[in-house]
Amino acid sequence: MGYNEGVERQRAKRKRVARMKRFIITTIAVFMLVTLCVMTFLVFEVVSLQRQVDVLSAKASVSTDVAESVEMVDDTYLDTVYQVDDTENLLEEGEIPLVYLTFDDGPSDNTDRILDILDDYNVKATFFVVGKDIETYGDQYRRIVDEGHSIGMHSFSHKYSEIYGSSDAFVSDYQKIHQLIFDTTGVDSKLYRFPGGSSNSLCNTSMSVFVDYLNSQNVKYYDWNVDVGDATPAAFSSAEIVDNVMRNVVKYKTSVILMHDASNKDATVEALPELIEALQQNGAMILPITDDTTVIHHTCVVQ
Question: Structure pTM?
């Protein structure tokens, strides 16, 4: 009887040990499995986050490149709250409205298209140009002048941070674009348009400092009182561009119309024939800016 009890105790002990071993092994296995799952999840999350970071970095890089590129050739930033004192410029009954088509940011391939249209209608305009490679765009600079249009300065770099960084920076940029126009066309240009207009809010220096410098060079700057809307991110159709102009031109004795001839302004090019015809049908006289043109200035010049 004692022997059997001892055997039973041994068996029970072995069973307990076996159960403990199974428990320990199961616990370790579950722990390892959970740990593996957690590690797999964390690795997946890290990879996913890295991909998101890479995508965001790429987008930021592209956005920066695009912004810098656009800033050089296109007025994508304009102060939409500009004001012009038109008290003395309201059209009276019987008066002929004087209209000045002005194109900023060229030359580009679209400049030739615009010049062809202007030639078809025997209309002269004003081109406020920026600094471009002469070997590529020299013919466009010369064609503007040779075909009887006015050529003005719109800065050399069209980079606000550079142009408006200081008085010296503005003078340096001015001299570059003035010399480029003179060397390429023989014209001593006395017309200037500030990138963003004289009411832009991107300057570290008061605009009056730059205006004083232009005055010292006997240069007149021109803003605008009619905007076709092609400088904004919104994509206007040709019909909308014409409507934007015609709603305002009927108000003024002198209308200086802001347009752009950069390479991405196809809608402006497409709208131009219809716009010219609408202006002529309304009895407007379309002219290039000259010394006799009424100066249109935004009112908030000094900041």
Answer: 0.73
